[in-house]
User: What shape does this take?
Amino acid sequence: MKSVDKTAKGTAFTIRGKKYQKDTVFWSYIMISTELIGFLAFTLYPILWALRLSWFSYDGIPSNTRFVGWTNFINIFKNDIIYWRAVLTTFEFALVKIPMEIPFALFLAVILSKKMKGSGFYRTMFFMPNVVSVAIIGLIFSNMFSHMGVINRMLSDAHLIKENIGWFDHKWTSLFSLAITDTWHTFGINLLYFMSAISNIPEDIYESAKLDGAGRFSTFFKITLPCIAPVFQIIIMMSVIGTLNTSDIVLVMTNGAPGGQTYTMMPYMTSKFVPGFAETTANIGYGCSIAIVSALIMLAITLIYNKFSARLKNMY
Amino acid sequence: MKKILKVMACALSLVMAASVCACSSGGTEQADGNLREITIWTGDSHSKNVIKGIVDEFNKEKGKELGVKLVYTVKEGDYAQTLDLAIASNQAPDMFGCFATQKYAENGDIIAINDLPGGQEYLDSVLDEEAKRTFVTTYDGKSYKVPYYVNTFGLAYNEDLFKECGIVDENGNAKAPETYAEFVEDAKKLTDASKNQYGFILPFKNTTSYSNFLNMTFSSKGTKGYDPVTGVYDYTVVEPAFEAMLQMKHDGSIYPGGDSIDNDMARAIFAEGQIGMIFTGSYDVAVFTSQFPAKCNWSVTALPTETKDEKYMQNSANSGGLVINKKTAEEVGGDVMLEIFKWYHSDEVLQELYEQGVSIPYNNEIIKRARVNKDVHPAWSIFGELRAISSVYPNEMPTDLEGTPAFKDIFKTNIWPEEGNMHELLVDLSNRSNAGIEKKFSVNENLKREDYIIPDYNTKR
Assistant: This one.
């Protein structure tokens, strides 16, 4: 409830039992206004624009623009086999990447949380890839995994392979290369989240466990993991959304190779319908309807995940 | 301390104010008299330095006569987007290169050459039959651009590697392939995987390099899938060219991992000297000279054809050229803008660009009389000669595939990985494309079928 309380310093508001000065409220709105304007102009408006255009055939030329009703959506479900193949690949990519990324970040977080020399340095180093441009990372790794790249050279020098491997010649090796690259790029942020969650676990719980004779593994599985479960749930959710949303790295590194088999939803949409990537005559309206369908798929996955992972929230 | 800060702030303000004044007083209007600046934007980074020199010459004489000063700018990066933004924010240049002519024409951003004083007479003198029916300059019966330069295409080959592998003529010179069969055979001979040496490299990560196989089809059949005489799609014509490509793949003579390699990387690998052949365009001469200097002797030849007996014109792509901002024409005067337009597209300018190894003119007569500078790579003249056997592919009949796979999708997901029967896939695509024509025309009353049908179309050479 809101009530007004005249004080010597000026008008104050009480909102839900907390007292705020009028100035504080005003300045709070000023502070968030830039973010709010940014959200309205660069997020909400484009979403509404895409929603509207998804009912149109639109290639940028005014006289070619036509209202087509549900046709775009019908075509997605009825005809666009490549899109649904990309949706399937998106899940396959998530299945390869997430089991690689999360345990790796957690493992390093547990190690770096110990009071050891140089942990700050390693923490910074592991986070560094996160701030490097995806385009640069994609370019570096695509050269590393290329036919005459450094990976093949290392394996060859170690006598592990006789002939150079075509990493992008087969779907699963290509997905594996992408997963390694994307993991290298994103695990640093998860590492920080895990470290922050671990640092919040009270030290006395560990001390009690030690007194009770708990070993390292049982301490990890029975104390650390349950204590960070709520954060774990959020990290996995962000990782799932991030992975389903993967775009740039695929475009830069494989662009669907081999034979479009590593196109996930977003790169497929970008390469076929986004001006600058697609042909000049691409039907942007159809691309918008694909974006809407993809967003709904991601929303459904997130809701399902939240429902089934709700138990993690209450573990500690 | 506060005093010192105040003094410093005042001093800084004075310096800034002085520099702003200096900037504004150094403007072109005072320096060059009352000349009106005409801004020109293009995305032609390859010709930047040469064009700037030519523009400087214009400004010294003709520009002063017309009372204008040209300011030529090459916009790097995403040129189309930069241009769109400039037009939307009312900051469009006075003249600019563009691809989306129809969009800007419909929005009233550009003026038709026909609408300028003397514009129709000028158009009559520069637009030949080919330009009229193939060049994307005309919208709603009016022309907004005129032909400028073309890109010609060919097969570049590593002369050193050809000689090393014994693929030579009677004089001991490298002998380039003429037919698909020779192309496949040569690629096989040139390949030695143990030395990481391959006969051919085909990049199709970002670019549509497979379109070069379509270009080979155009040279061999006179069509790439759309027949301008009948107005019907028949993609089965591409089969022989694609079978040749798949044969090379089976022979192991194509550099592995082509669909994850972009054109830049492929050109860099070719330049290293371990690749026998690569599809190229005339713009690649500069690439192999400055961007990725070739460490081998290389040359270029016409694209191979299915047989030696039946050959058609090669495909070439029109490029370059400017359009005129409608507001500028109204403000400065249509006659002045037409004079600048005529100069920019004149034979003299195009000849200069060709002689300096920058652009191949649309008009073949200019190539015939030009003398290419000695320091330009010899392949440039061959690309110039290819203009005589090249023509621009006509506009294809618009079709609506309704979300079903298009040609490039089929190439990537089926033909190259060899999933499914190629003939059946191409027949299915042809049928869908032909059915899509009806669909497209039924919802767009502005489209006219006769714009896409050329009854006497024949490019046999």
Q: What stands out?
A: The interface with chain A takes residues 78, 80-81, 99-100, 102-103, 106-107, 193, 196, 205-206, 255-257, 259-262, 265, 400, 402-405, 409, 412-414, 416-417, 419, 443-444, 446 of chain B (CB under 8 Å). Residues 2-25 of chain B form the longest helix (24 residues). Residues 347 and 355 of chain B are 12 Å apart (CA to CA).
